[in-house]
Amino acid sequence: MPDGNRVIVHVGLPKTGTTYLQRVLARNRQPLREADVLYPGPGSDHFFAAQDLLDRPFKGHRDSRVAGAWSAITTQAGGATPTVVISHELLATARAETIDRLLDDLAPRDVTVIATVRDLPRQVLAVWQEDVKNGSTRTFEEFLRRVQASSEADDRLSKPFWKFQDAPGILDLWSQRVPVGRVVVVTVPPSGEPNRVLWQRFCTAIGISH
To answer: Which of 41, 104, 110, 157 sees the fewest Cβ atoms within 10 Å?
Structure first.
């Protein structure tokens, strides 16, 4: 049985099965409620709520649905007795002051942070494939060369990549503000494993049966 005073904040990382997990959470809202877990809604993810919290337009565009979306999520969380799950990979880019606001807004409930991670070679390939799907004509060799540049380099590709994919740095920042034992890493299964293995690992981290 999950802890009823807890909020699970799943921060990604991107390309680690986040969309899959969010869709499973959304499709199973009622069974989760029966297990004392609330996945606030509507919608399959918390994209607008994350943008609202970060106070940052997405790719230069600010959707009208963003304003108030974070407040709506925290209102549901504050009025709920079960464990609450909040999930979006944009939260991987949260700065220190944003994390502090998140913790303040969710107080007095305890926050547990979950990061889904997988090995960097698969991450690099997955991000490149996503870029190609979105219209990039950059070869994998060029993509890899630029990603290998320092995250401090003045490179429009390298800096955004590491902002989302620097797992040690992201975990360290959250760990400075969330108590020891409440930052949890869930590893993505090897290629070829069924998707449900990731869901099972995620459920174990939350504290529910799968």
So the answer is: 104
Is the whole model's pTM more than 0.85, yes or no? yes
From first to last of the 210 residues of the chain, give the pLDDT tens digit: 455 589 999 999 999 999 999 999 999 999 999 989 999 988 889 999 999 999 988 877 888 999 999 999 999 888 777 899 999 999 999 999 999 999 999 999 999 999 999 999 999 999 999 889 988 899 999 888 888 876 555 555 567 788 899 999 999 999 999 998 999 999 999 989 998 999 999 999 998 887
Nearest to 115 by CA among 10, 8, 6, 7: 10
> In the numeric block, which tokens belong to residue 21?
């997990």
User: Which of 40, 130, 52 is CA-nearest to residue 80?
Assistant: 40
Edge-to-edge strand ranges of the sheet holding 6-10: 37-38, 83-87, 6-10, 110-117, 183-187
Taking phi first (over 0 means left), then psi (-120 to 50 degrees means alpha), and beta for anything else, what does residue 191 get? beta
Assess contact for 25 and 17: CB atoms under 8 A.
Answer: no
